[in-house]
Amino acid sequence: MTAVIWLYQFTIFTFIFSLFQIPYTAAIFAHEDIGVYAVVSTVECLLRLGAAILIGKFMIDNLSFYGMCLLISSIIIFTIYMWYGKAHYKECHYHKTTDRKLYKELLSFSGWTLFGNVANIGMQQGNIILLNIFFGATINAAFGVALQINNAFGALCNSIIIPLRPAMIKAYAEENFSYLNKLFSVGNKLILYALLAIGTPIILEMPNILNWWLNITDESFILFARLIIIYIVCLSMNNPITAIIQATGKVKEYHLKVESITLLCLPISWLFFTFHLPSYFALISMIAVSVVAHTIRLFCLRKYYRSFSINSYVTTLLLPGITILILGVGSSHLLQQNIDSNFLRVLFIFLYSPTFFIVSALLLGTNKSEKKVIYSYVHSFITKRLCR
User: Fold this and answer.
1) Residues 173-184: pLDDT tens digits?
2) For residues 166 and 169, what is the distance between their CA atoms, to the nearest angstrom?
3) Is the pTM of this model over 0.90?
4) Which pLDDT score, from 0 to 100, does residue 275 have?
5) Which of 161, 167, 126 is nearest to 143 (CA)?
6) Across 88-210, where does the E strand assignment appear?
7) Considering only CA atoms, which of 185, 208, 245, 226 is closest in space to residue 340?
8) Which residues of 263-293 are buried (b: 16+ CB within 10 A; e: fewer)?
9) Contact 67, 10 (CB under 8 A)
């Protein structure tokens, strides 16, 4: 109990310093200095890795020590962001303002955005509580492993959308809607095909991955891990939509409609468990709710951004994406069935499947203008890295 209390205190302060760094990371994104964000993020990962390696090396409770190290890491990262922001951006210096309209707009925007984030976190954490009540610690642990996979895929998705978000908001502000539509389409396709390329081989070889990673062979762990990948693919497709909605400023109506659907996940899961359905129906509920919420997002985008076409979204993204998914999964499964060695099967699946999705996406999933945008971003990224 003492260790838990200390960990709780460390976590609170870690969260506070994470909040403090938001204005500085926002300034970095606004100036499109993505390389700086990448470097600092790498430093943060290394600090956390170092904390994990040092567990057990000191005469301190391991849980308390790890929480303390995460707090120190958070303070260091905040300090780096604050120093860089103040050194390079004039807007990162404090200026007192009495503009009440500005305060009202900022509080409304941040408040409704926070409501959206809390709804998604509540859906996951609420399901943890329900699983613990109805099924106990083992199933709860399976869901915890699945959430670790969810966090990894979420980080991948964020790394894709972060470079595009400032350009999308700038294009909307300049009323350059043709360019914004290209960025929106490119962002959707990058997220979809990247997640399919990485998620498909992981889903197919999940039994071997969990066995090698955590020495786990329990079917519930495998099923939860597979379903969470399907959930994150469905959920991640909202990122380009949210970027445009935030650019329009219509966040109140958007989050109120969407998150009202999201919050239905918990009562649905409770009903499933009350009627004695299996534990994995928690994830079935999450997937179903995310699909319905995404449909609501599309109609919200159509209402607040007149240049968006749902028909075009379906014909240029969803239909080619589903076709490529069916072909990719089918051919990967066929290859999987013809290799007996576990190691060789995993190796070939992880070589073949991503290659298939990347090549198919370039040949069938993107048009010439989208290829140009992708190539220009890749060229710009490489050029910036070489010139530093």
Assistant:
1) 888 998 899 889
2) 5
3) no
4) 92
5) 126
6) none
7) 208
8) bbbbebbbebbeeeeebbbbbbbbbbbbeeb
9) yes
